[in-house]
Write a structure and sequence with these properties.
Blueprint: H1 2-19, H2 29-42, H3 45-48, H4 53-75, H5 82-90, E1 98-100, H6 107-127, H7 142-165, E2 172-174, H8 187-194, H9 197-213, H10 217-240, H11 242-264, H12 272-297
Antiparallel strand pairs: 1-2
Helix pairs in contact: 1-2, 1-4, 1-5, 2-4, 4-10, 6-7, 7-12, 8-9, 9-10, 10-11, 11-12
């Protein structure tokens, strides 16, 4: 009940914040700033929630995403009507990736998503049994971190598949959130085109594109990864503490730098096998910084 009450309070604050900015170009800047400030207040809720770490982490993930959406609305409130703002505050889906379709019940997609979800839960749960919590890059932790990464991949595939399929009975279709990330030949392809397109699109539109249009695409890449790192830092902080949160933020900072390195190396021009090897090597080299804090968020 405490978890639901806290979530309801945070969702209500963000809904009000999303509706606050005037939908005209010359609307009050105070209203736009007030919307961002109100949503920022909701970010404190997971730190005061008396619940297991996993619930605090999930709430932080939700409120962090909603905060980004409020900021996106506040940047250009004239681009979002009232109904779309409500949908963006109440749904995890991206309204700009949705379109109306005839209603149907996609049993196959729901079944596939459920299989991925259950498999991910089992694999992720098993990863915690390989070794106790340890410092990143300790030798004993590698089976734990690699298995957790595999479980996380399956979980995201399952959750995104179920959420997309769940829209069809209501007459809506959502573009794929995951586009076979394992096929990525570069890190830029993985993060920008294939992995979690809901968050990826948000970061691209609000971090990368504004700077790219000003002739600074590299700074746009770094800003996108910095914001992603802060989001994941915030996700871990109320659930596992400061040091694991720093590890998680460092994972995204390193990947931002690696994206610039692969541009210099022209990895996208490499043979497919070499490109895949580069992506795999980058993830294996950095996965302790991601898996260890994530596992600590889901500790019993």
């Amino acid at each position: 009940m405490r978890v639901l009450t806290a979530y309801g309070a945070g969702a209500a604050v963000n809904l009000a914040a999303g509706l606050l900015p005037s939908p005209v170009r010359d609307g009050s800047r105070r209203l736009r700033a007030g919307a961002v400030a109100a949503s920022m207040c909701a970010l404190a809720i997971p730190f005061f929630l008396d619940a297991p770490p996993v619930f605090r982490a999930v709430q932080a993930a939700v409120f962090g995403t909603l905060f980004c959406r409020v900021v996106e609305i506040a940047r250009a409130p004239w681009c979002y009507g009232r109904r779309e703002r409500i949908a963006r505050m109440l749904l995890v889906h991206d309204t700009r990736l949705m379109k109306p379709v005839p209603r149907s019940l996609p049993i196959g997609a729901l079944l596939a998503g459920t299989i991925f979800l259950i498999s991910g839960i089992l694999v992720f749960d098993a990863s915690a049994r390989f070794a106790p919590p340890t410092l990143p890059y300790a030798l004993a932790g590698w089976p734990r971190w690699l298995t957790a990464a595999a479980g996380s991949y399956l979980l995201i595939e399952g959750i995104s598949g179920i959420l997309i399929a769940a829209l069809r009975p209501f007459g809506w279709e959502h573009e794929a959130v995951q586009r076979s990330p394992v096929l990525s030949r570069t890190l830029a392809e993985f993060w920008g085109l294939r992995w979690n397109r809901v968050i990826g699109r948000l970061l691209r539109r609000n971090c990368f594109e504004p700077l790219a249009r000003r002739g600074a695409p590299m700074l746009g890449v770094l800003l996108a990864f910095a914001v992603s790192g802060l989001l994941h830092f915030y996700l871990v902080l109320p659930a596992a503490g400061l040091v694991p949160a720093i590890w998680m933020g460092s994972f995204f900072a390193v990947h931002g730098i690696l994206c610039l390195v692969e541009t210099r190396l022209a990895v996208r021009r490499w043979p497919a096998v070499a490109g895949h090897a580069f992506v795999v090597a980058a993830f294996v080299a950095t996965i302790p910084l991601f898996s260890e804090p994530l596992l600590r968020c889901f500790k019993r």
